[in-house]
Amino acid sequence: TKAPIHVLILSSWRSGSSFIGQIFNHHPDVFYLFEPGHPIWMRFKKEAAELLHYPLRDLIHSLFTCDVTPLQQYVPGDGKYISSMSFFAESRALCSPPSCSHPSTSEGYERSKCSKHCRNSTFDKMAEACNTYDHRVMKTVRILDFSVLLPLFQDPALDLRIIHLVRDPRAIVSSRRSFSLDIDDQIVLKQHDKDTKGPVMAKICRAQVNIYRMVKAVGDYLERRYLLIRHEDLSMEPIVCTKKIYEFSGLKMTPDLERWIYNITHDLIKHPSRFLAFSKQSSKVIQKWRNTLDFNKVKEIEEYCREAMDLFGYLPVSSVSDQKNMSLDLVLSSVEMDDPSETNMK
Fold this sequence. Notes:
- InterPro entries: Gal/GlcNAc/GalNAc_ST (IPR051135), P-loop_NTPase (IPR027417), Sulfotransferase_dom (IPR000863).
- The protein is 45% helix and 8% strand.
- Strands 2-3-1-4-5 form a 5-stranded parallel β-sheet, with helices on both faces.
- It has one domain (5-280): P-loop containing nucleotide triphosphate hydrolases (Rossmann fold), CATH 3.40.50.300.
- It starts with a strand and ends with a helix.
- It has helices at residues 17-25, 38-43, 49-64, 69-74, 111-117, 123-131, 169-176, 182-189, 200-218, 220-223, 231-236, 238-248, 255-265, 283-286, 289-292, 295-304, 306-312, 320-324, 340-344; strands at 5-10, 30-34, 135-140, 160-166, 226-230.
């Protein structure tokens, strides 16, 4: 058997990471898990993100090697059935044999059927399923400090690759308004050091910058295992970006997958998952914040997130008319920001 490849998608809330997750989830060679850190954060709601990084890192490590026992400790209940994970049906592999052998699985992956028919699959079956795949992928928005992951790169059993997804902070704020993130925000903002004052968004932006900087600082070895993707590029060029993501992860694009990506980004199929609001993700959705946020709010975000915006190629607005002028592009093309490290690392 081939040595497995492990891919960790790092992002922050409302940045489109569920869509990248689904790009992997729909690939037949991938064992995908959605937000493995969720049960840890829900169990330790009073703790700070900085402390929860360590059990989360260890859990990710275990799951990459198909050891599910730590996960069983964190989920509510007796840890016997996968239905104790809130989002088990987000994973096609958990909804198919050998994890779930209900007859309905032969008709293809459907979340609602999986939620109903695969609830009583056991964690043992999950481990068995994991071992049959040579690509294991997880996505998390709950790692704000890249340094905790560095030990994973030392483990010869892991062939670890990081996909780092970023998005225009103004669009994130606009999107967060319609989504309740109170518990997560409380964990992110728990004060441990004096310089974490300021709102959640400031901390999230700082975390994205630090992830990027640390990869560059560690140098060549890590840079080869790191891919930066902007939500906006994925929205405008979904097929091109997906091919890049697959190639980086050692996967091949198939005609079926290409069709699925085209259909979902052109709103030709309905979204059974509340995490996959990716329809018509063209320039219209990218620009949505320009109509929903007032100018003062925009300037406030630009102030908190100036470094992230500079680094990842998002331009500030200088007036209300600039904000509302949709022909004015506020996202640098990826060519223009090809290697942001060149200008910003000095």
